[in-house]
């Protein structure tokens, strides 16, 4: 049987209003009383009623009696676990501040295995919106919007025709910073390893390269699958075929494969080849030599996405006019 607020008040020897103030962190309640009330709440296992809290609240988020949101990771995020784990942590920290709980799920490679699971999630009572991390097709976003009015995309640009809020990484600006750094370090023949042409990050890297191609003698762009294994094999094959380069730009995960290939070839970094990453995952600082990279505040991506969702629920903004861009920063280490 559920414990009522009156039972908590009676056991703590305070009024119902005092218990309510403790729960909402509002009003003047002494620290001694607050601790006593919290001890009784824990002892009795009291859980506040969303419905009752909604009736009392003038905040549209609380008044909606919504306590959960979908945090959906695109199929592409499985190739960047370190990056998106930090995004999830940032979202979780911000969600706590608003009394929300993220329900995490991964979109699969094929629609047939993804959508039934999404439908089950969107049937959850008290779901207030969805945050989509990674790349989603326009038709996938539109389908999700049929089940959730409030949608925020994270890291990737929102499709032009979709009325959703967006929190983006400055991937294009970061790629320009990386290539500019390699140029300043004297690189003339640069190899750029990135993901599929149709992927937003691969597209941003290629766009940045096209803009500075004239600054290098050679700037070769190769599109792969974002794996360290592909990057390692590609570097080994290119080098052994006589395609030598003095600078390599890729993301951090693929840079691990590049490091292994250059070690196998006996090529010194940064003496003969300078290596530049992107994402600033923790492992990069422990490579030998440590990896120069581009940093995007991944936790902030997650926290700003939750803030954006809350603003949409409260009617403070709508998706058509709402976009935040998290800036990129150059992190120089031993590999350049």
> How would a textbook summarize the main sheet?
6 strands, parallel
Strand order of the largest sheet: 2-1-3-4-5-11
Instruction: Quickly give the structural class.
Output: alpha/beta
Tally of domains: 3
Please work out how many helical segments DSSP would assign: 13
Mean pLDDT: 88
Would you summarize the structure shown here?
This protein has 336 residues and is of the alpha/beta class.
Fold blueprint:
Elements: H1 5-12, H2 16-24, H3 31-44, H4 50-56, H5 60-63, E1 68-73, H6 81-97, E2 101-106, H7 111-122, E3 127-133, H8 138-145, E4 151-155, E5 165-169, H9 171-184, E6 189-194, H10 200-212, E7 218-223, H11 228-240, E8 247-249, H12 252-265, E9 274-276, E10 293-296, H13 298-313, E11 323-326, E12 328-331
Parallel strand pairs: 1-2, 1-3, 3-4, 4-5, 5-11, 6-7, 6-8, 8-9
Antiparallel strand pairs: 10-12
Helix pairs in contact: 1-2, 1-3, 6-13, 9-10, 11-12
Keywords:
336 residues, alpha/beta, 434 Repressor (Amino-terminal Domain), Rossmann fold, 6-stranded parallel sheet, 4-stranded parallel sheet, 13 helices
Q: Can you walk me through this structure?
A:
The chain is of the alpha/beta class and about 325 residues long. The protein folds into 3 domains: about 5-50, lambda repressor-like DNA-binding domains (434 Repressor (Amino-terminal Domain), Orthogonal Bundle), CATH 1.10.260.40; about 70-170 and about 300-330, 3-Layer(aba) Sandwich (Rossmann fold); about 170-295, Response regulator (Rossmann fold). The chain has 13 helices and 12 strands. It has helices at about 5-10, 15-25, 30-45, 50-55, 60-65, 80-95, 110-120, 140-145, 170-185, 200-210, 230-240, 250-265, 300-315, and strands spanning about 70-75, 100-105, 125-135, 150-155, 165-170, 190-195, 220-225, 245-250, 275, 295, 325, 330. The strands form 3 sheets. A 6-stranded parallel beta sheet has the order 2-1-3-4-5-11, with helices on both faces. The protein has a 4-stranded parallel beta sheet with strand order 7-6-8-9, with helices on both faces. Strand 6 (about 190-195), helix 10 (about 200-210) and strand 7 form a beta-alpha-beta unit. It is elongated, with a radius of gyration of 25 Å.
């Amino acid at each position: 049987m559920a414990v009522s607020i009156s039972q908590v008040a009676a056991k703590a020897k305070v009024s119902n209003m005092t218990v309510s103030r403790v729960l909402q962190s509002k009003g003047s309640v002494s620290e001694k009383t607050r601790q006593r009330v919290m001890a009784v709440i824990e002892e009795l296992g009291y859980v506040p009623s969303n419905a009752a809290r909604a009736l009392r609240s003038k905040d549209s988020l609380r008044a909606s009696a919504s306590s959960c949101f979908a945090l959906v990771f695109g199929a592409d995020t499985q190739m960047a676990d370190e990056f998106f784990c930090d995004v999830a942590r940032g979202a979780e920290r911000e969600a706590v501040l608003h009394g929300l709980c993220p329900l995490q799920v991964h979109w699969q490679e094929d629609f047939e295995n993804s959508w039934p699971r999404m439908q089950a999630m969107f049937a959850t009572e008290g779901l207030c919106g969805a945050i989509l991390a990674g790349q989603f097709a326009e038709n996938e976003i539109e389908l999700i919007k049929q089940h959730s009015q409030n949608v925020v995309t994270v890291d990737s640009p929102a499709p032009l025709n979709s009325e959703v809020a967006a929190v983006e990484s400055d991937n294009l600006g970061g790629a320009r910073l990386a290539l500019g750094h390699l140029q300043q370090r004297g690189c003339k023949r640069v190899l750029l390893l990135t993901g599929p042409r149709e992927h937003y990050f691969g597209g941003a890297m290629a766009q940045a390269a096209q803009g500075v191609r004239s600054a290098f003698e050679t700037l070769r762009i190769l599109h792969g699958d974002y794996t360290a294994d592909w990057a390692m094999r590609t570097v080994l094959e290119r080098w052994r075929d006589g395609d030598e380069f003095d600078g390599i730009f890729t993301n951090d995960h693929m840079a691990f494969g590049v490091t292994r290939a250059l070690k196998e070839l006996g090529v010194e970094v940064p003496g003969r080849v300078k290596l530049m990453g992107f994402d600033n995952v923790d492992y990069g600082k422990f490579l030998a030599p440590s990896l120069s990279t581009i940093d995007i505040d991944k936790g902030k991506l997650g926290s700003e996405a939750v803030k954006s969702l809350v603003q949409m629920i409260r009617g403070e903004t709508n998706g058509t006019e709402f976009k935040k861009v998290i800036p990129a920063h150059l992190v120089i280490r031993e590999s350049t």
